[in-house]
Specification:
Layout lengths: L2 H7 L4 H13 L8 H13 L4 E5 L7 E7 L4 E8 L14 E3 L2 E3 L3 H21 L6 E7 L7 H9 L4 E4 L8 E4 L1 E10 L14 H15 L10 E9 L9 E10 L6 H17 L4 E10 L2 E2 L10 H9 L7 E3 L5 H5 L4 E4 L14 E3 H18 L2
Parallel strand pairs: 3-6, 3-7, 7-15, 8-14
Antiparallel strand pairs: 1-2, 2-6, 4-5, 5-16, 8-13, 9-11, 9-12, 10-11
Helix pairs in contact: 1-10, 2-4, 4-10, 6-7, 8-10
Length: 380
């Protein structure tokens, strides 16, 4: 560990970090309702003596990104995290519960633990008084779990050659990133009395055939073992005693870095064409709702922007073993602008968006140490 890293880490305060973390968790902040959390965090940052920028997101004055800056321009590093969570879907409530080293609750892994760790690391950097020869920014954005509008606003105003995003990776450095494809299949049939199905055309029956065919054939897709397909929602019909005349299915596909969506869409189209022949009265259509291409930064020849992060890993005695982030995130938005983007944060993706979401406090402390070392190295 360099003396510079040691000087910054001396100013990390574990009690302050945990207090900040629990405060973030205690305020429910789904997309478009982040305002109370933004105001509470703004007050905390002011109390720490930190200056920050507010960035308006959308038309509501209560939806803002918060951006902390240190050092001169141009920036050498941008650390990015989102303050929103998915909407609460169960009766257990959103507030955190601690059991020894484990903290349970909505947003613990995805990703308020990363945000708290980064704020603590930034506070320690400023308090240490080490000279800052290069600049850095910590961006805390809204809306990642919906349209990514917070990151889009930040991207237009803040850029750096290295961007680190604190999504849950169990503190593994993810320099590759999966692609994300969202498709919508729509079926329009013919309404009729439920007792006379031969008079109508059942949109739900046609949809079930399409989706079943897709699920059966996906094993033969290229990279099938690394491709994740999820039928997120099937909706249609009505409570009345009739044949369903409308149905739609929303399907998510996560593809390995560099994979094209064309093969997947072609497979969907073929399943739709076959179903159309057996359900002649139903009009089936396919629409691409969203596409976010992934990237394989590990194959970039001569890529060196990760050196500060590699030094930070050494400082916390963790091996530098780059891997791939298997979900969607704001990373592709910044990678598209030419920054070297790495996803690395506390918590595990396999508990995110689940009732059992949790994180280890020890890992949150390690994340703060890692980020503190990263900030020290990037500004040297």
């Amino acid at each position: 560990m360099t003396t510079r890293i040691a000087a910054v880490r001396e100013h990390l305060d574990r009690g302050r970090l945990e207090s900040q973390f629990f405060e973030l968790l205690d305020i429910y902040s789904p997309p478009y309702a982040e305002g109370p959390l933004i105001e509470r965090l703004s007050a905390d940052l002011t109390a720490r003596g930190l200056t920050f920028e507010r960035q308006q997101v959308g038309s509501s004055p209560r939806r803002q990104n918060l951006v902390l800056r240190a050092g001169p321009e141009p920036l050498a590093l941008l650390w990015l995290g989102h303050l929103d969570t998915v909407e609460l879907w169960h009766e257990g409530g959103h507030r955190p519960r601690r059991d020894g080293d484990i903290v349970w609750g909505l947003g613990t892994a995805d990703m308020k633990s990363g945000c708290a760790a980064a704020v603590e690391a930034f506070t320690a950097l400023v308090a240490s008084g080490v000279p800052l020869r290069q600049g850095l920014a910590v961006g805390l954005v809204v809306g990642e779990e919906d349209a990514g509008d917070g990151a889009l606003v930040l991207r237009e105003r803040v850029s750096a050659p290295l961007t680190v995003i604190g999504e849950p990776t169990s503190l593994e450095p993810c320099v590759d990133h999966f692609s994300y494809l969202e498709l919508l299949i729509e079926a329009r049939g013919k309404r009729a009395h439920a007792a006379l199905p031969e008079v109508g055309a059942n949109a739900i029956h046609a949809m079930l055939e399409v989706v079943s065919a897709i699920l059966e054939q996906r094993a033969g897709w290229p990279d099938a073992d690394r491709t994740a397909l999820s039928v997120r929602r099937i909706s249609g019909g009505e409570p009345h005693f009739v044949i369903a005349e409308h149905c739609e299915a929303q399907i998510d596909v996560h593809l390995p870095p560099g994979a094209s969506p064309d093969g997947v869409e072609r497979a969907f189209s073929e399943a739709i064409e076959r179903a159309s022949r057996t359900h002649e009265g139903v009009a089936l259509s396919l629409r691409r709702v969203f596409w976010a291409p992934g990237f394989a930064a590990s194959t970039t020849p001569g890529a060196t922007p990760t050196l500060p992060l590699e030094a930070a890993f050494r400082s916390v005695d963790r091996p530098w073993l780059p891997t791939a982030f298997r979900s969607h995130s704001d990373a592709n938005l910044f990678h598209d602008r030419g920054t070297f983007t790495v996803v690395c944060g506390p918590g595990s993706l396999d508990v995110a968006h689940r009732r059992s979401e949790h994180v280890s406090l020890a890992e949150v402390h390690t994340a703060a140490e890692l980020y503190a070392a990263l900030f020290a190295e990037a500004t040297a």
